[in-house]
Write a structure and sequence with these properties.
By secondary structure, the protein is mostly helical. The chain is built from 9 helices and no strands. It has helices spanning 4-23, 40-65, 72-86, 88-97, 102-130, 135-140, 144-159, 164-179, 184-190. The chain is globular, with a radius of gyration of 18 Å. It comes from Leptolyngbya subtilissima DQ-A4.
Length: 191
């Protein structure tokens, strides 16, 4: 089966998710800068979530570039990832509009955690489709960054009930880890 439809569908879903998120930003009715002050946390949650969606979009693109074809299992694993990503607008709005309270921050982390797990499942399903000796399998290797992310998300979720700000910092830390481009797939495909 061709991977083109999976790429196009995933790109469209992620674009819709970003659109939904931006529509959640409410325009103030006043025209002075003071009217923006209550929206700062909402905006910051939007920025972080936009960055996360960009990271997933970019890595998803690289993952499929290294793939030759997809199977039915890959389609379902991809839908599983898109399901968790589709919840990002909800938890983004909930956390931002409730001043990063403990429960919304924990739910935000839970969605990030399950998105990371879903991405891992997708990558392993693609490896199973292509074989353990494939360029994709070699490029992904042990996926230390992915495993570290899961650990940090879990710690952040637990921390949300003690110190929600620390949880948010951990979410930012994971995003920063992934902002540094992962060149494993590009290097493997080039060689």
């Amino acid at each position: 089966m061709s991977k083109g439809r999976v790429e196009a569908f995933s790109d469209a879903v992620i674009a819709i998710i970003i659109t939904i998120m931006v529509l959640e930003l409410r325009v103030p009715h006043e025209v002075d800068l003071a009217a923006l002050r209550p929206l700062i946390l909402v905006f910051l949650s939007y920025v972080l979530s936009f960055i996360y969606l960009g990271i997933y979009w970019s890595n998803h693109h690289h993952l499929l570039q290294a793939s030759q074809h997809v199977s039915g299992n890959v389609l379902w694993a991809n839908l599983h990832l898109l399901f968790w990503l589709s919840l990002i607008p909800f938890v983004t709005a909930w956390a931002g509009e409730n001043l990063f309270a403990a429960l919304p921050v924990a739910f935000y982390g839970t969605v990030l955690l399950f998105s990371a797990i879903a991405y891992y499942i997708l990558s392993r399903t693609l490896i199973a489709c292509h074989g353990q000796d494939s360029a994709l399998a070699l490029a992904l290797g042990q996926d230390l960054k992915g495993k570290t992310s899961v650990i940090l998300y879990t710690v952040a979720i637990l921390f949300a009930f003690i110190n929600p700000e620390m949880s948010c910092l951990l979410y930012v830390l994971v995003a920063m880890m992934w902002l540094i481009p992962d060149r494993r797939i590009e290097r493997t495909l080039a060689s």
